[in-house]
Amino acid sequence: VSAVGTDELGDRALEQLRSLGSRVDHIARDSAHATGRVNVTLDEQKRPAFEIAANAAWDHIPWSPALDALAQRADAVCFGTLGQRSPESRETITRVLRATRPEALRMFDINLRQHFHDRETIEHSLALASALKLNEDELPVVASLCGVEAESTGAMLKTLARRYDLLLVAPTGGPDGATLAAGDEESSVPAPPVRVVDTVGAGDAFTASLVCDFLRGLPLAQINHRANEIAGYVCSV
Is the pLDDT score of 195 beyond 80? Predict the structure, then answer.
């Protein structure tokens, strides 16, 4: 669910998605705004910095009855803060989440980028979410903005999960792997050794694997191992 401009970049984006077998019938075409762009630069550790174009088509995702129907049959919805930087897309995302069935997994993959986040958006999103994924840099920011005072990472996770009634909390630590916490169960898995080429997309790959395996009801340790392996593969190419 997104929006692209009626421009060459939008045409190319839709063409590539179709070639990968992805459905594009819920991607709107916006004649008033350009297709979004992100310039990515890597530091010496291959960690990315993002320069994100403002007021892009995806800042203006329109609501439609088709999105309502999609939300009602979805097993999972993944969303973040960046997609909510504009009022229009934020309202559409909120309506999608509220239209889901109670048992649907609402995965808040928080993605704090540049200045496109605030306490209101984070707390609003956590109230709508049933699961949270974030990285080692984002966890203390989220805890601070939400007024969570804890002496350890584990205590932060438990406090967030309890306060916002989350089924699953997943902080990732790059080369240190990830921890998954669900109820009283916890799994910590180190990242597999890989030759890092480019870390862009590793977090999204981790989330995709995590959501699919959690929906399948696999053991938490197995979910964590597979998600780390897939994220490691993405870092290697």
Answer: yes
pLDDT tens column, 108-155: 998 776 566 678 888 899 999 999 998 877 877 777 777 777 667 777
Q: For tokens 């994100």, what's the residue?
A: 52
Q: Which residue has the tokens 């088509």?
A: 57
3-class DSSP assignment, residue 2: strand
List, as own/partner pairs, every contact residues 124-129 make where C-beta atoms lie below 8 angstroms and the sequence separation is at least 24, other chains included.
Answer: 124/94, 125/79, 125/81, 125/84, 126/160, 126/164, 126/166, 127/164, 128/94, 128/97, 128/98, 129/97, 129/164, 129/166
What's the pLDDT band for 88 if we cut at 50, 70, 90?
A: very high
Angle between helices 138-145 and 119-128 (to 10 degrees): 90
In degrees and rounded to multiples of 5, residue 63 shows phi and psi of: -80, 150
* CA pair distance 96, 229, nearest whole angstrom: 31
Residues 107 and 133 sit within 8 Å (Cβ to Cβ): yes
The CB density around residue 37, as the number of other CB atoms within 10 Å, is 10
What's the alpha-carbon Rg for the chain, to the nearest Å? 18
Section 55-76 average pLDDT: 97
- Distance between alpha carbon 100 and the CA centroid of its chain, in Å? 17
